[in-house]
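The instructor's notes for this session suggest beginning with a concrete chain rather than abstract definitions. Hand out the sequence below and ask the class to guess, before any prediction is shown, which regions might be ordered.
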Amino acid sequence: GHLPTHHFIMAAALGLDAAPPAAPEADSIAPDCKEHAAAGAEQASVRFALPTALHHAEIMKHPKLMVQCAFDAQGALAASADGTGEDIDCAAAQREGLMVYEVLETGGFLKLYCKPHARFYWHLQALTNHCVPDWKIHYSIVEDDLGTAWDIISAIFIEMRCMSGLKVQTQGARWPGWQRGREFTVYIYRYSPAFEEQSDDVIYARQEWEQPESFWMEFITRTETALLAAGVRTRGVAHGDHAIGQYASLRNEAFVIAQPQWRLERGASHEDVGRRGRLVYPPNDAGFNAASHVCPLAAYGPRRQPWLGPVLALAVILLPCATGWLTLRTGTV
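After discussion, reveal the predicted structure:
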């Protein structure tokens, strides 16, 4: 879509690409991810033994039953709760260095998330009208393979002690065609100062809870390799996402003001939305980063050129001098 003039000025001053890349082809695989996979294929296997209670087949026997598990630093199961008794005391668990994960089926999705971090994050996103960075790794998975994908990605998610959440489309749920390629979602937590404006208690939504780019690149490499080894089938990268691998793609789903040139997938007309200035879920036509937030994976976002900023700053200083000199010279002649 068209970007305002100030976007191009700021992009040039910061050494960024002014426009986001075009939507990738469905079968495209980023070279960077191939290199990561080749270098780390040995470590990319699933080493963590997912507890039986967290296996997809076991969960779907009683999908409405909330399951909790606490793991120590070595990945050993330290405590569990099946929703019929008392919940795990998260505060006490954290004092002992344990990570608590919870499974819940709701709204057509089966969710696994770090408690309480992820739930607090989602709550703050709602309070900020979903305008804060909302970066997600999507995995394109054929419906019949979603259970296998759940067991693989969840195991790596817990083993690496991810502090966000993930969700998978519930098999049999109505899944719109325009969401093809987003059957499985992993959230990348990113802090926003807006969180502090919405709540005085942001202990679980601080900047130090962000996990770095290297963490997420390892996560993507390991999940891609394990899914491929298990023969999991892909539906092709989602339109509007930025392709990373054979299964994974990247997208920021922070809400934005609709642009006239976009086609909205959710039935609202551009005229009505634009006239009222309403915020909307970014349509596929808007690309992978409609809100132009800083990309958590620099390899797939606008690249900063360290030398360009100082050069442009020097140009801003010298330009008036050069203009004055040319004016004097022209006047002399």
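Then share the key points. Residues 1-44, 268-272, 303-313 have pLDDT under 50 and may be disordered. The first strand starts at residue 67 and ends at 71.
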